[in-house]
């Protein structure tokens, strides 16, 4: 295109043009037209114009996938923060769980894991599997049985019997495992058992002292028994998994490139389930906390997930990361993409673009249904006033856990898609700054607003991946602009300034929900009706009793509030 092409390739102009094009979706949402016309504009932009533009510029498809991934993360966090009012600063941990769930199995890392367990079985696979199955069934069954019991329904003697019985079961399990399982040909250490029994004695001793002082300890004893049963169940899961890896170790060579790509669809569901389970496990011990305390502890638990990924070299390859991560194999789709003029290197990116588009639509529909459902109203009630919500019969723990699990599941499925797109995963992709960035998207767009959160994610992603790098590239060769003020290196400062400006000028967000807007501008929306009706009692002495601050009656028989 000659000179015009050179001008259009300018990084700043390129970023502006991409932003204006993606603004078509916002235009379609705000446009006061027939829904069918609005849908035509949106779908035409997303399904036809953008993929065809991405055929010429692959980075446009990549940017669109990034925007939709972050939009899904922001929608998940919007449930936790915007609806339920639970400030989760470790949200990116669920994203990491989904990414590693697929990356470990869809890469050569799985073959290396199988080889390790083939060389270091620790015990016979059959014995390990039997011990794991007994532990899993016994622990899970015991936990479910104890979970059904309420403290007021249990006699003190029965509560003590259950707690002591769980300790006996723990000791029996230890010696059973010590007989069949070894590590480096050494039996399990009795020192570890002694330390665990000492901890149990300390806990039960405290309960006995509390009972001697007249306190009811049945709830504490039942919780202790539940914890021991849950630990046995978790140990069973690990032992069953280890036995399965030992049994599969003979297939290590055949899986040098990872599992069959056709299992991609199964792992989509598995990533949702795994992230939801991790969300529940993280939420269980912390949901009694509120506000800043909840934020701090979720931040710590999120960092625990990242540090585990950094240190479990066998499974996550540590700081080196996992590569190459495979993706789904869709031969029919590849043939269609080839006929549309896409190059072979673009097939996977186009597939992931359409996949993440479908997933984000499903997530938005689920969010909309949840927002208007009974559970959505329960989340809002908890956010506004926990005491009032509990008094009205809202179960706090279960409702909060549902919020954590739902938000985590959205992050998990997008983490898997992110791993398939990047083909490389490392712990550096899941640092605290990513959680802060997702939270900034929710605040910028408008907490509680589905279109607002999507808009916030698009604005932040465009600034982060296109606009600020474009400005940095354009200013890199300008002599009078020092590199210390390069926009690409000042992202945190710029985003911080944007958030401060939003809090001061528009705290409800760019596209706020009606509910949130009324909450923040409640005083501005109050009508002053004192100059209407028969409100003379407010300004003419004691001519009558004032029954309301707005329209007050003058005569005793007048209706309270006046009449319009």
TrEMBL record:
Question: Where mainly found?
Answer: membrane
Q: Where in the cell?
A: Cell membrane
| Chain residue ranges for the region called Disordered | 523-564
Query: Which residue windows does the record flag with biased composition (Gly residues)?
Result: 533-542
Q: Does the record carry Transmembrane helix as a key word?
A: yes
Example GO CC term: the record gives: plasma membrane
Compositional bias ranges of the Basic and acidic residues kind: 555-564
Instruction: List the membrane topology term(s).
Output: Multi-pass membrane protein
The record's annotation in Pfam families points to:
BPD_transp_2
Q: Which InterPro entries match?
A: ABC_transp_permease, LivM-like
Query: Its Gene Ontology molecular function terms?
Result: branched-chain amino acid transmembrane transporter activity
- What residue ranges are annotated as transmembrane? 12-31, 65-84, 91-110, 122-146, 158-176, 188-206, 227-250, 262-286, 293-312, 350-368, 401-424, 436-463
Q: Which UniProt keywords apply?
A: Cell membrane, Membrane, Transmembrane, Transmembrane helix
Q: What is this protein called?
A: Branched-chain amino acid ABC transporter permease
**Organism of this sequence:** Deinococcus arcticus
Please spell out the taxonomic lineage of the organism that makes this protein: Bacteria, Thermotogati, Deinococcota, Deinococci, Deinococcales
């Amino acid at each position: 295109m000659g000179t015009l092409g050179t001008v259009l390739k300018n990084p700043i102009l390129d970023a502006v043009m991409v932003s204006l094009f993606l603004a078509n979706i916002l235009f379609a949402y705000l446009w006061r037209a027939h829904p069918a016309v609005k849908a035509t504009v949106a779908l035409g932009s997303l399904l036809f114009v953008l993929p065809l533009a991405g055929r010429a510029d692959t980075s446009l498809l990549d940017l669109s996938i990034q925007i939709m991934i972050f939009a899904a993360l922001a929608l998940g966090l919007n449930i936790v923060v915007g609806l339920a009012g639970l400030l989760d600063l470790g949200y990116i941990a669920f994203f990491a769980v989904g990414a590693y769930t697929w990356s470990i199995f869809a890469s050569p890392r799985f073959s290396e894991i199988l080889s390790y367990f083939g060389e270091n079985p620790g015990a016979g696979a059959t014995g390990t599997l039997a011990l794991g199955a007994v532990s899993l069934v016994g622990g899970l069954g015991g936990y479910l049985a104890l979970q059904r019991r309420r403290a007021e329904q249990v006699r003190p003697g029965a509560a003590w019997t259950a707690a002591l019985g769980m300790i006996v079961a723990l000791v029996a399990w230890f010696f059973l495992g010590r007989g069949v399982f070894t590590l480096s040909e050494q039996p399990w250490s009795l020192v570890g058992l002694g330390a665990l029994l000492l901890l149990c004695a300390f806990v039960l001793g405290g309960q006995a002292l509390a009972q001697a002082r007249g306190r009811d300890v049945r709830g504490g004893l039942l919780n202790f028994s539940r914890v021991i049963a849950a630990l046995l169940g978790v140990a069973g899961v690990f032992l069953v998994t280890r036995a399965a890896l030992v049994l599969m170790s003979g297939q290590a060579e055949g899986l040098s490139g990872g599992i069959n790509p056709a299992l991609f669809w199964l792992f989509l569901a598995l990533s949702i389930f795994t992230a939801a389970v991790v969300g529940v496990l993280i939420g269980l011990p912390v949901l009694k906390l509120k506000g800043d305390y909840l934020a701090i502890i979720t931040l710590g638990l999120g960092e625990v997930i990242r540090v585990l990924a950094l240190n479990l070299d066998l499974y996550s390859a540590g700081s080196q990361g996992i590569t190459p991560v495979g993706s789904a194999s869709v031969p029919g789709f590849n043939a269609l993409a080839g006929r549309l003029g896409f190059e072979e290197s673009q097939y996977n990116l186009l597939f992931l673009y359409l996949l993440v588009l479908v997933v984000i639509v499903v997530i938005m529909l689920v969010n909309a249904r949840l927002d208007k459902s009974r559970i959505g109203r329960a989340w809002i009630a908890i956010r506004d006033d926990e005491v009032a919500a509990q008094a009205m019969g809202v179960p706090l723990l279960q409702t909060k856990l549902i919020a954590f699990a739902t938000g985590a599941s959205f992050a998990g499925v997008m983490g898997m898609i992110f791993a398939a797109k990047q083909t490389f995963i490392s712990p550096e992709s899941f640092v605290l700054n990513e959680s802060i960035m997702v939270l900034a998207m929710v605040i910028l767009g408008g907490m509680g607003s589905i279109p607002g959160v999507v808009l916030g994610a698009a604005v932040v992603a465009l600034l982060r991946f296109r606009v600020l790098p474009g400005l940095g590239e354009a200013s890199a060769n300008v002599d009078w602009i020092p590199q210390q003020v390069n926009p690409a290196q000042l992202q945190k400062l710029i985003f911080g300034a944007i958030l401060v400006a939003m809090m001061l000028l528009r705290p409800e967000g760019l596209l706020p929900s009606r509910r949130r807007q009324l909450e923040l501008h409640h005083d501005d929306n109050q009508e002053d009706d004192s100059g209407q009706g028969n409100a003379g009692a407010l300004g003419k002495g004691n001519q009558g009793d004032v029954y309301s601050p707005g329209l007050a009656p003058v005569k005793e028989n007048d209706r309270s509030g006046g009449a319009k």
